[in-house]
Amino acid sequence: MTDPLWISTLTKLAVPAAGILLMLVIAHVRKFSLQEDFGFRNFKLTTAIVFLLLWVALICVEEFICSLLNIAQQKHWPVLPLSVVLLRIMAIGIVGPISEEMAWRGIFFSWVNKKWGASVAIILPSLLWAPLHTQYDIPTQVILFLDGVFLGLTRYKTRSIWPPIILHIGGNLFSIWQSLA
Predict the structure, then answer these.
(1) Fewer CB within 10 Å, N- or C-terminus of the chain?
(2) C-alpha dist (Å) from residue 93 to 67, 96, 101, 111
(3) How many domains, in total, are found in the chain?
(4) Spatial CA neighbour of 82 closest among 94, 74, 90
(5) Residue 117 within any structural domain of the chain
(6) Using alpha carbons only, how large is the chain's radius of gyration in Å?
């Protein structure tokens, strides 16, 4: 199992999974509330559906602008073994978004919201989150910033982390689909 492809793939899965585990352990030790501090609470389905439709519209607008400006966002994946593709889909499409949302629009959002209010809690995580995606160029990082603001607004309006997690997973799975097409 010293194949670099497998090591890279397992790392893509292990890092966000370890992040989730670490956040849950710290939350337990510090007695954080999963509902209050992370936002794991129920939400109104109608509100979430409105944000889902707005998310789809935002992605369509971003795709249109990218095609007009000839900005390539996704790199096509090389031909990979099916097991590697499935693990990468799990890592990038599901576990990664859960980890990122728990960190940025979960605990960090709650902390910033208590300290400086909702506007800062929506914008600041996005300002810090987008540039961490160093594999992308500046125009794509701007799009990631806008996506982050939208996910933060979704978190604020629904009072739950579940809708941003679902939207983020959907966005990443769409991006993966484009990379595989």
Answers:
(1) N
(2) 23, 7, 13, 26
(3) 1
(4) 90
(5) yes
(6) 17
